[in-house]
Every structure is written in C-alpha cells, then in structure tokens.
Design brief:
One of its GO terms (molecular function) is cysteine dioxygenase activity. This protein has four helices and 16 strands. It is α+β, with helices and mostly antiparallel strands. It binds fe (ii) ion (FE2).
C-alpha cells in the first residue's frame, strides 16, 4: 500500500509554520517534524519561535538546586530527539562543551542566558588557551542554534537576582559529550543524566555504599570525572 506521507521538501517548503499555543502543541509538531530524517534548521527555529513561553506549561519541569543547574527531560520524540528543560539558579554556568555531532536548539522560557562561543582547540598548538569567538545574551522566547561544525560553547545565567529556564532540543539525542578546559583546551568525556523525567524526580543510582549521581557540564563540581558521590544514607 502506497504511503500518503508527503516528502520532506514539500513538508518544509509548502507548509507554513503553525501557530503553537502551548508546550503540548509544540511537542506534537516536533514529533511530526522529526518523522523525517532531515533536520530543517530554519523550520525548527521558526517552530520554536512560534511558541510563546507560558510558565503554566512548564512549571512541572522547573526545578532548581543551589550548586548546579538541573536537566529535566520533557520528551524524547519516540527516540528521535531529547527535549530538556534546564533550570539555572542565579549565576550558574555550564563548562565549555561539544554536542556529540547533534543539532542543538535552545528556546528561552524565562530569564536570560549568556552564550560564549569558542573555536575547537588547535591540534597543532596543544596547551594553548581556547580562542573565544564571541558572546551574546538571549532572553525570553529567543531561539538559538549551534552544532559542532560551528563552534563549542558555554552558557551561564548572568543574573545574580533572577533564575533562568531554557528548553534544549537535541537531535539526535546523546548522553555524553566533551567538556573543555578554557586555559589548556584539554577535554574530558562526560556522561549526562536527568534531575527529573516527565516531571518526576529521577532516582539516584546506588553504587556500593555510595549514592552516585552523575553531574556534568557544571563549572562548580567535578567536571574532570563527571561524578559526584554522596555517602548513603544522607541526612535529611
Ligand atoms: Fe550546549
């Protein structure tokens, strides 16, 4: 039986970006878009821009911690992508990182993020400090895009009085990436986990007598090994 699915070219060229009135509608349309193997960057950026942030839509993914930003899984698009809400307390930042050859879109939901882009470290000049390409600040409802062929980057909440929530779309999904030392260009591979999934707190992994959580991309904690251990049981 012949498929009635239209081609990716028709889908992205003839269909106007629909009006998106809430986060559920955005997810529904993202799932439609990524039934195609092609990633049309301009279309996805326009789609994310079409949704206007409403805290009622995403408050169940909004979780903050004192010492690190949190990663909260919103949707996996049937395995095609990861849609993740990142919640940044005042002044929190990521380390410089790559994106494992995936496309990375960021839709700002609340507050501000400062993005600083870097060139990949030079293989011919090891031990050099990393070259800064530029930086910019984005605010509510802004959309940005990056992939590894463009640059590396780090992000931070520049405010010391307001929190930030950003929605990150990674296509295809990935669970590890590289973080870089700005002074030397040295990198380490780190594994990422979620603070919550679908609005539910993620359970810690037990490892011997220690409770282990994998914390990554965090400039404040353990980026060299990507692990932090906490003695179990922990006081309440
Ligand atoms: Fe990133």
């Amino acid at each position: 039986m012949a498929s009635t699915k239209i081609s990716a070219e028709e889908y992205f060229s003839e269909k106007n970006v629909p009006a998106i009135s809430n986060l559920d509608e955005l997810i529904k349309e993202l799932r439609n878009v990524f039934e195609y193997d092609e990633v049309n960057v301009d279309y996805v950026k326009a789609l994310l821009s079409s949704y206007k942030s409403n805290p009622e839509d995403w408050k169940k993914y909004s979780n903050f911690e004192t010492h690190r930003y949190t990663r909260n899984l919103v949707d996996t698009g049937n395995g095609k992508y990861n849609l993740i809400a990142l919640c940044w307390s005042e002044g929190q930042a990521s380390s410089i990182h790559s994106h494992s050859d995936s496309h990375c879109f960021v839709k700002m939901l609340d507050g501000q993020l400062k993005e600083t882009r870097y060139a990949w470290p030079s293989e011919s000049e090891p031990e050099n400090s990393m070259q800064k390409l530029g930086s910019g600040v984005c605010g509510k409802d802004d959309v940005t895009y990056i992939n590894d062929s463009q640059a590396l980057h780090c992000m931070e909440n520049p405010s010391h009085s307001d929190t930030t929530v950003s929605l990150h779309l990674y296509i295809p999904p990935f669970s590890s990436c590289k973080t870089f030392d700005e002074r030397t260009g040295h990198s380490v591979s780190v594994t990422m986990t979620f603070w919550s999934k679908y609005g539910e707190r993620t359970k810690f992994t037990m490892c011997g007598q220690h409770m282990v959580s994998v914390w990554t991309l965090d400039t404040n904690l353990s980026t060299q090994v990507g692990l932090r251990t906490t003695t179990w049981p922990r006081g309440s």
